[in-house]
Design brief:
The chain is an alpha+beta fold. It has helices at residues 86-102, 110-124, 129-143, 189-198, 213-231, 236-247, and strands at 3-16, 20-27, 31-37, 56-62, 69-79, 164-166, 185-187. A hairpin with a 6-residue loop joins strand 4 and strand 5 (69-79). The structure holds zinc ion (ZN).
Length: 248
């Protein structure tokens, strides 16, 4: 049985049998894998604390011929979201679910891996969470080639000015002249400035640009629509996060 070592991001786990777990993880160089972690649900398991969503870890696993499931040999966390603040922890499931949805099976996507890893690092070093979430969504959509242009109106091709809007039944950004008044998702000057800044900055640099509540809601709404259009569903964790905010 060939054994592989890789840098990986843990995405999620589920129960297997009496005491094991199946771990879904994204490797930097060999795509997404599913592996059996033997005894991971026992109280003193060597995997305890290592399998939280978006943990960065070194992993070793055996690949078995003709089997989709690999067998994990070890998972050594190098950076864990558990060191992030309480607010941020609510989001780790959302980050992981998005990466899981977008990571192709057994197909390498190093840029996606690097985006996920940079988010784990930013969370662990206390980057502001809300801007980080909007940044992550923006880049995820951009890497898939589905983020609309921030420079040109998707309807008439004119340069987009300070504000833009996403029409109710389309996922393009249009200029003020093309926007039917008061409908769709409006992106204010603050929201557009944030996106243009995000295009060229690292997650750590996000603290240099404050993101107000209303601009954050505009981006959340636009991104929810883009993600929904491309995955053709709403993510469970996104719904939970929205409901949490309404309760507060
Ligand atoms: Zn236009």
């Amino acid at each position: 049985m060939p054994v592989y070592q890789a840098e990986a991001l843990i995405l999620r786990t589920y129960k297997l049998g009496e005491s094991d777990r199946i771990v879904v993880f994204l490797t930097r160089d060999r795509g997404k894998k599913r592996g059996v972690a033997k005894g991971a649900r026992r109280p003193k398991s060597r995997y305890s604390g290592a399998l939280e969503p978006i943990t960065r870890a070194g992993v070793a696993y055996y690949e078995r011929e003709q089997r989709d499931l690999v067998r994990l040999n070890f998972v050594e966390p190098s950076r864990s979201p558990l060191s992030a603040s309480g607010d941020a922890l609510g989001y780790v499931g959302y980050f992981a679910e998005l990466i899981d949805e977008w990571a192709p099976e057994a197909h390498t996507d190093e840029r996606l891996y690097r985006l996920g890893a940079s988010v784990t690092d930013a969370l662990a070093t206390g980057a502001p969470v809300e801007p980080l979430v909007r940044y992550f969504e923006y880049w995820l959509l951009r890497l898939q080639g589905v983020y609309p242009s921030l420079r040109r109106c998707g309807a008439c091709g004119a340069a987009l000015g300070e504000t833009a809007s996403m029409p109710p039944r389309d996922t393009i950004l249009v200029c003020r002249e093309c926007a039917p008044s008061g409908t769709g998702t409006v992106l204010s000057a603050e929201a557009l400035t944030f996106l243009r800044f995000a295009t060229a900055c690292t997650p750590e640099q996000l603290r240099e640009l404050p993101l107000g509540d209303s601009a954050a809601r505009q981006l959340e709404d636009a991104h929810r629509r883009l993600i929904g259009a491309h995955l053709e569903k709403e993510l469970k964790s996104a719904r939970v996060l929205r409901e949490m905010r309404h309760v507060r």
